[in-house]
């Protein structure tokens, strides 16, 4: 791995870590933030603002990175995030928090879109999948650190101060890495091929398939841990609100640990040994079987936690492979835009799906709620089977550019 690839990986590691950290802070401390600012009714809006900002950032930075380059876009994203992290700690009302969280989501998601394009273009072909898995797994590490950080700060600081310190810590962590970010060089792949005019219609079918699969993944990964577990399975087990929250925290922590363990071991090994299509298929079939097995043990909290952890160990193989395909399968002139479209649409779906489940599907029962996820994953598997996916594991990214050059001519 050359110096540019190493610097890029180091620079992007913090982006993915902070992404997981910020999302968990916004989601887990939203009620606390609203209460401390005497705006109880705005608790739900706090997380939504971050997600909405992320959607806009995915689309906007995708366009920006393809038009003006990866390096400039990453520098802009970093500056926006650092400034918003400083200002949010000084917020005096809920509207400032909502606006600044939207800006943070905008910067983090946009940074991820531009960054994933750069890492694919500078990584050696044999390490491309591995480096992508490392970055994606770091997101889960950010989730876990945010959970422990929140618990610790709440135990030693008054509530109104704990969330401000959480955001301040995120901003401080980024500062040393900002120096690395400005040392990066522009992607030579983008410099050589990024100005070519390639029509989006030439990649339309693949793009639609990736949007469908990624959107289903977003529904499953948001709805199950953040809605079905606390609001339906917990009460069905006879747990009160407090006990149900504790049960959900235990399940999410077990799943997060399993995802980190799997991401740094088996998933990292398989991502470059299996074809991209096989990786996506294996990860999703494994997830499907895991939720089918869960239906058998819905009367046991220990069984559910254990099964959720097992699902989370290997299913990231499919999730990460889809994210990787959303970047490496496209030419550099469309790469960030295509990734932004997949990321943006799946983010929209993930923000809407909890509302659909809560208001329209809550009466179908816990068993059928879990089976609905099985049905959705089955649709993803069928989509994978009928999608033509080129295996780009061991070829240089410039070969992808030449392939599209041939197609266009």
TrEMBL record:
It comes from the Archaea. CDD domains: MFS_SV2_like. InterPro entries: MFS, MFS_dom, MFS_trans_sf. The chain crosses the membrane at residues 7-29, 41-64, 76-95, 101-120, 132-155, 161-184, 205-229, 251-271, 283-304, 310-327, 339-360, 366-386. Pfam families: MFS_1. GO terms for cellular component: membrane. This is Major facilitator superfamily (MFS) profile domain-containing protein. It comes from Acidianus sulfidivorans JP7.
């Amino acid at each position: 791995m050359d110096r540019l690839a190493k610097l890029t990986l180091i620079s992007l590691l913090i982006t993915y870590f902070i992404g997981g950290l910020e999302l968990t802070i916004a989601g887990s401390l939203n009620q606390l933030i609203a209460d401390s600012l005497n705006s109880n009714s705005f608790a739900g809006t706090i997380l939504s603002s971050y997600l909405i900002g992320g959607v806009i950032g995915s689309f906007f930075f995708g366009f920006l990175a393809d038009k003006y380059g990866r390096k400039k876009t990453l520098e802009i994203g970093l500056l926006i995030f650092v400034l918003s992290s400083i200002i949010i700690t000084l917020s005096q009302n809920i509207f400032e928090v909502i606006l600044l969280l939207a800006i943070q989501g905008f910067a983090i998601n946009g940074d991820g879109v531009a960054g994933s394009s750069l890492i694919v273009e500078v990584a050696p072909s044999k390490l491309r999948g591995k480096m992508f898995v490392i970055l994606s797994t770091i997101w889960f590490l950010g989730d876990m650190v945010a959970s422990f950080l929140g618990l610790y700060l709440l135990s030693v600081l008054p509530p109104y101060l704990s969330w401000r310190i959480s955001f301040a810590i995120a901003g401080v962590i980024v500062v040393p890495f900002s120096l690395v970010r400005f040392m990066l060089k522009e992607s030579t792949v983008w410099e050589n091929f990024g100005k070519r005019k390639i029509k989006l219609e030439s990649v339309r079918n693949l793009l639609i398939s990736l949007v469908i699969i990624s959107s289903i993944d977003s529904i499953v990964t948001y709805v199950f841990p953040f809605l079905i577990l606390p609001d339906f399975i917990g009460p069905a087990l006879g747990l009160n609100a407090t006990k149900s929250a504790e049960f959900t925290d235990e399940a999410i922590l077990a799943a997060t640990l399993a995802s980190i363990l799997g991401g740094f071991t088996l998933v990292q090994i398989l991502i470059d040994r299996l074809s991209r299509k096989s990786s996506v298929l294996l990860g999703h079939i494994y997830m499907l079987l895991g939720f089918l097995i869960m239906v058998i043990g819905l009367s046991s909290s220990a069984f559910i936690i254990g099964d959720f952890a097992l699902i989370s160990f290997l299913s990231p193989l499919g999730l990460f492979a889809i994210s990787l395909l959303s970047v490496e399968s496209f030419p550099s002139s469309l790469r960030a835009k295509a990734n932004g479209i997949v990321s943006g649409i799946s983010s929209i779906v993930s923000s809407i799906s909890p509302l659909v489940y809560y208001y329209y599907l809550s009466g179908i029962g816990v068993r059928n709620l879990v089976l609905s996820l099985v049905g959705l994953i089955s649709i993803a598997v069928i989509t994978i089977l009928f999608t033509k996916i080129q295996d780009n594991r061991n070829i240089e990214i410039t070969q992808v550019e030449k392939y599209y050059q041939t197609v266009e001519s």
